[in-house]
Specification:
32 helices; 69% helix; mainly alpha; two-stranded antiparallel sheet; two-stranded antiparallel ribbon; 2% strand
Length: 636
């Protein structure tokens, strides 16, 4: 959300009400029993803010709340009637093999005698199917008693004697054997038996569920992203099959889909990032991002030079190096800036211009999604001693934001980020950019009070910094909502209107105010503000996307929503927010193939790995739904 993503996730970007917007109009909703069939394809909702993405795609501590609520007794082997057989009290949990309780010699002898009688009964049976069922039933008894090796032996014997044409019974025997292997942590055997069971009965819910969980377990133990993706894709298909066959009635399965899609999205994003091609966002996005820095050294130089008249030639010679880079900024020839800065670094010994060129190159590397190169440039500027303070501080702010964007370790990233901000404060206490961007990081990690303090400080240092003030008001509003203080909610809304009067041309303020009104279901007022923002900035595609979402939420007007989002893409074909939103709408309409195409276009435009992971998850959900519905012959 900070720095590079702030321009897309603030008032002119993703809607604060987006989590409820599209789902409120998709023709369903409510409790688990009435969840529309497309809901799992959304995975974690419609377009969300970068802050929410960071929370959702941060590392899980196991399965989080799911583990806490996990049943103490797991389903075991199928009984004769196909119902689950629960383990008897006193057995170990499913995560560890169970050792039989120690018994007295007399008790052991009695059990052996009983087992022997059962063996005699089974041996006396002549019908192969009856014999197989009897062996299965005996295996179930061993399973319930925690004697898994003996249970496996019985299920294997049942498989051997069962007629091959009795596919349903055979599938049960294989699934039961998989259940026993599962208790012994024999994951390869679990997968092998589930594969056979599903070849025999493709709609076998229990085998699908067991294989999905085994695949997920394997994926967590593998560091290779390609293998992770392969296993998690099959896992998503299996658990999607379970959801379809059960009519999307079980909330626990929908939550499992959600968790696996997050893991799959993260793995795919990590894999895609390694071979990601450099691509800049739209010109409009770049300008918004650059405007979020009031104290940027390069910006300050351009402001001073704007009083003069810079020609394309200087003393009859074509501009080169940093001079050319500055001219490219003015002309919005953003694609040429990295090369011009590189030329400066390779051809001159002027310390001041090389530092500025490196700062500008690092900034554009970051926007081109070449974050490692951007990080390297910022590191050099931060580590060198003879760098101008303003340049070093700007590099610290951008590196601090980059730690969040790269998401290498979501537990340590905020620590590294805040450490850079603290160092920046030591160097330049009165730099408003530090507090504005640090406030966004605090907002991201749910430290609301600290965010408010930072935004207030940014405004105090630079009263004309309207974007910082808008962020402060938005944080006030979020805090008021979190604590349920209606009075403070109304105060925050009133403050937004006052801010609009004070900064009537600030699109960020107007758009954030519209999002707040939208979340309060004051739809007419929100629409009026969005229209006002569009009049001020007619080329702002993200405002049109938010208007489209508003049309969906307030009136259920899908046609108008689609029209506005498509109009946004006409303005800015590189607007990832518009592509993702339109893809989500297409999912709801049942146009899954079209949705996948739109997600394909959005993925390379995502500003962070978190956003990329989110879109990958949405895409894989739609793809799994197509694959599974075709495989099972279920019409969606």
């Amino acid at each position: 959300m900070s720095s590079i993503s702030s321009a897309a996730s603030g008032g002119v970007g993703r809607s604060v009400a987006a989590d409820s917007t599209v789902s409120a109009t998709g023709g369903g909703g409510g409790g688990a029993s009435s969840i529309p069939k497309w809901v799992y394809a959304l995975a974690i909702g419609v377009p969300v803010t970068a802050a929410l993405l960071y929370v959702l795609f941060g590392p899980d501590d196991g399965d989080g709340q799911t583990k806490k609520k996990k049943k103490k007794e797991e389903e075991g082997a199928d009984s004769k009637k196909g119902s689950p057989v629960k383990k008897e009290s006193g057995t170990a949990p499913a995560s560890a093999p169970i050792k039989a309780e120690s018994k007295s010699p007399a008790s052991n002898n009695a059990q052996k005698s009983k087992d022997k009688k059962e063996e005699v009964v089974v041996e006396e049976l002549t019908d192969p199917l009856e014999k197989g069922i009897a062996l299965k039933n005996r295996g179930n008894k061993y399973f319930r008693a925690g004697r898994y090796e003996l249970a496996i032996k019985c299920y294997s014997e049942a498989i051997d004697v069962c007629p091959k044409e009795k596919t349903t019974d055979l599938a049960t025997f294989y699934q039961n054997r998989a259940a026993a292997h599962d208790q012994l942590q024999n994951t390869d055997e679990v997968l092998s038996d589930c594969d056979i069971a599903l070849n025999l009965n493709s709609r076998y819910v229990k085998a699908l569920d067991r294989r999905a969980k085994a695949l997920r377990k394997q994926a967590k133990q593998i560091e290779n992203f390609e293998t992770q993706v392969e296993k998690l894709k099959q896992c998503v298909e299996d658990i999607t099959s379970v959801c379809l066959l059960e009519g999307f009635q079980k909330q626990e399965n929908l939550l499992l889909v959600d968790q696996v899609l997050r893991e799959l999205g993260r793995a795919q994003a990590a894999l895609a990032s390694k071979s990601r091609k450099p691509i800049l966002p739209s010109k409009h996005f770049i300008k918004q991002y650059l405007e979020s820095f009031a104290e940027d050294p390069v910006k300050k130089i351009l402001e001073k030079e704007s009083e003069g008249d810079i020609d394309e030639k200087e003393n009859g010679v074509d501009l080169a190096g940093f001079s050319r880079a500055k001219q490219c900024l003015i002309e919005e020839d953003y694609e040429s800036i990295v090369d011009a800065c590189t030329q400066e670094l390779e051809s001159t010994s002027n310390i001041e211009t090389t530092h500025l060129a490196r700062l500008l190159r690092g900034t554009f590397y970051t926007m081109r999604k070449q974050r490692e190169q951007g990080m390297e440039d910022f590191n050099i500027l931060i580590d060198e001693e003879n760098v101008d303070t303003k340049v070093k501080v700007n590099a610290l702010i951008k590196r601090a934001s980059l730690f969040i964007q790269m998401c290498k370790d979501p537990k340590k990233d905020p620590e590294l980020s805040l450490k850079d901000f603290a160092r920046a404060v030591e160097l330049d206490t009165d730099n408003s950019d530090i507090y504005n961007h640090r406030g966004q990081v605090h907002l991201l990690i749910e430290e609301m009070n600290k965010a408010i303090v930072d935004f207030r400080k940014a405004v105090e240092l630079n009263p004309n910094h309207s974007i910082a003030y808008a962020q402060k008001l938005f944080t006030d509003y979020r805090c008021a909502v979190m604590i349920g203080d209606v009075t403070k909610v109304h105060t925050a809304i009133s403050d937004f209107y006052e801010a609009i009067e004070k900064h009537p041309k600030c699109v960020e303020t107007i758009s954030l105010a519209a999002q707040v009104l939208n979340s309060q279901e004051k739809f007419k007022e929100a629409e009026a503000l969005y229209k006002k923002a569009s009049e001020i900035d007619p080329n702002n595609a993200s405002i049109l996307v938010n208007r489209g979402l508003l049309a969906l939420q307030s009136r259920g007007d899908i046609a108008e929503g689609v029209r506005l989002v498509e109009k946004a893409l006409e303005l800015d074909e590189l607007n990832e927010f518009a592509l993702e939103t339109l893809g989500t709408i297409e999912v709801q309409k049942g146009n899954l193939k079209r949705a996948i195409e739109l997600y394909d276009k959005a993925i390379p435009l995502a500003n962070t790995e978190l956003e990329m992971a989110h879109i990958f998850g949405l895409q894989e959900a739609a793809r799994a739904q197509i694959t599974v519905s075709q495989k099972l012959g279920i019409e969606m």
